[in-house]
Design goal:
By secondary structure, the chain is mainly alpha-helical. 39% of the residues lie in helices and 0% in strands. Helix 2 crosses helix 3.
Length: 70
């Protein structure tokens, strides 16, 4: 697999806060300005939980079985 297949959003290889992730999504795809970056990220992660591996985890993080990374 190429890197592009592992990262179809073509995001930087780093961990994002939820706010940063939402901002990256908005920059890539656009989005309704009435929805915050946090809400945009949460909606995207609910639909595509595999991307939760790109989010910085809090100390009390509970692993999701559907993400495959934690």
């Amino acid at each position: 697999m190429t890197e592009n297949e592992n990262n179809p959003l073509e995001l930087e290889n780093k961990l994002y806060t939820v706010e940063e992730f939402g901002s990256a999504l908005r920059n890539k795809f656009g989005g309704d300005s009435h929805i915050s970056n946090v809400m945009l990220a949460e909606l995207f992660l609910a639909k595509y939980p595999v991307y939760s591996c790109k989010i910085k985890k809090s100390k009390n993080h509970i692993s999701q079985k559907s993400c495959g990374c934690c």
